[in-house]
Amino acid sequence: MNHCSLLARAIETDRDYFELGARTEQLPAAVLAWLPGLESAAPGAVVQRVEPAIVAEQGRRWLVETERALSRVGAAIARVYLEDRQARLDPLFRSAGYVDREELIFAHSFEAPGAGLTLTRVKSEADWDRKLRLHQLISTPPDGHPTSASDWVALERRKCDAGMEAYLVERDGVTVGAIGALRGNGVLRLKNIVVHPGCRRQGIGLGMLGHFGTRPLSQGISEQCVFAVRGEIGELLYRAAGMRQIGSVVEWSKPLKDSD
């Protein structure tokens, strides 16, 4: 059993997700992870495992070098993840044109799956086609950054080839949602949760989460967690379900087309 704190293990699932199926490059005080062929999509390239003390010491020079590395691999957006709020770095990022958002981390345990819902592992071409059609109906991707449905599904497919699990959710034979799962570090991380626009506010989101809560935990997994952007629908859903917040991470981002 991994004896690191639940928060540390939950954060590690995020790092693992971005590096799954990706190439990585060690930068000064950080790691760049990108998916070749999808690096221009918002979720296709991120900077993480950041050492705040070194960033604070190097200041603007660190940002310039990091943006150059992102541009070199073809990224269109600079996305930098910090493990928590670093007040001393806020002025640095803001002065360089970055905007921040806080992602809250929730741990949870469900006792019962949603009635009438069926989860099917996405494997066949027909499954991936159904998943694409679902995402084409959804105006905002799961991570909130502008990404085409085709790029999003291609990215998830690449992640699944490297070990992630993707599921379609059905009710009465109709696809009503999708969810992803990543197992490791003693944690079951649930990701990329979407609900068909015509089926929202019907308990679909909580129902699909419940399916994982009742499955026998294996591979040393003892906890489940989800992330949600502060103030958005995910946070409202998880709080209404009685989940406990265990921490947060901060993402700083900006378009790179005008970077120097």
Distinctive features:
32% helix, single chain, Aminopeptidase, 260 residues
List the helices and strands and how they pair.
Layout: H1 6-19, E1 23-27, E2 30-34, E3 45-48, H2 52-58, H3 60-72, E4 77-82, H4 90-95, E5 99-108, E6 117-121, H5 125-136, H6 149-161, E7 165-171, E8 174-184, E9 187-195, H7 204-214, E10 223-229, H8 233-240, E11 244-255
Parallel strand pairs: 9-10
Antiparallel strand pairs: 1-2, 2-3, 4-11, 5-10, 5-11, 6-7, 7-8, 8-9
Helix pairs in contact: 5-6
What's the gist of this structure?
With 260 residues, this protein is α+β, with helices and mostly antiparallel strands.
The helix content is: 25-40%
Given helix and strand content, the structural type is alpha+beta
Query: For the report, how would you describe the main beta sheet?
Result: 8 strands, mixed
Give the end-to-end Cα distance, rounded to a whole number of Å. Answer: 46 Å
CATH topology of the largest domain: Aminopeptidase
Percentage of residues in strands: 25-35%
Number of domains: 2
Major β-sheet strand ordering: 4-11-5-10-9-8-7-6
Order of helices and strands: HEEEHHEHEEHHEEEHEHE
Backbone shape: globular
Can you walk me through this structure?
- This protein is α+β, with helices and mostly antiparallel strands.
- The protein has 2 domains: 6-103 and 250-255; 107-248, Aminopeptidase, CATH 3.40.630.30.
- Helix content is 32%, strand content 31%.
- The protein has helices spanning 6-19, 52-58, 60-72, 90-95, 125-136, 149-161, 204-214, 233-240; strands at 23-27, 30-34, 45-48, 77-82, 99-108, 117-121, 165-171, 174-184, 187-195, 223-229, 244-255.
- The strands form 2 sheets. It has an 8-stranded mixed sheet with strand order 4-11-5-10-9-8-7-6, sandwiched between helices.
- The longest helix is centred in the N-terminal third of the chain and has 14 residues, at 6-19.
